[in-house]
C-alpha cells in the first residue's frame, strides 16, 4: 500500500511551481514556514514512508503534498546512493554536505528528475523561490 502525505488540505499554504511550501521543523529561516516541533512535517513523512514507498512503481497523486513526497523520496534514494561507498562517518558526512551544496534543477530545467510532475515556473521569482525551497528541504534530509 502506497503511503500518502497527511498534508492534503493545507489551506493558505503558498506554492512554488505547484509545490506546497509546507511548514518544516527548523530554526533556520527559509521560504517555508516554521512548524510546531511536536507535529510531523513533510520531511518526517518522507523518511517514515521511504521504505514502503520505494517498492511501488505507480503512485496515485492525491494532493500537491504527494508530489513533494515523491520528490523527497527520490532525494533520499540519491543520498543513500552517495553514502554507499563511504566507509567512515566523516566520509559520509562530507558526501551528504557536498550533495546539499550541488545546484538543484527546478521544473523546466534540464536535469530535473520529474518533468511534467510540477508545472513550469510562471516567473523568474517563482523559479528562484522553488529552487530555494527544494534546496532548503534537502538540507534537512
From TrEMBL:
Pfam families the UniProt entry points to: P21-Arc (PF04062)
Keyword annotations of the record: Actin-binding, Cytoplasm, Cytoskeleton
Gene Ontology MF terms in the entry: actin binding
A cellular component annotation (GO) from this entry: Arp2/3 protein complex
Assembly, per entry: Component of the Arp2/3 complex.
Organism of this sequence: Glycine soja
UniProt function note: Functions as component of the Arp2/3 complex which is involved in regulation of actin polymerization and together with an activating nucleation-promoting factor (NPF) mediates the formation of branched actin networks.
Keyword Amino-acid biosynthesis among record annotations: no
UniProt family annotation: Belongs to the ARPC3 family.
Keyword Cytoplasm included in the entry's annotation: yes
Protein name, as recorded: Actin-related protein 2/3 complex subunit 3
An annotated GO BP: Arp2/3 complex-mediated actin nucleation
InterPro entries in alphabetical order: ARPC3 (IPR007204), ARPC3_sf (IPR036753)
Subcellular location: Cytoplasm, Cytoskeleton
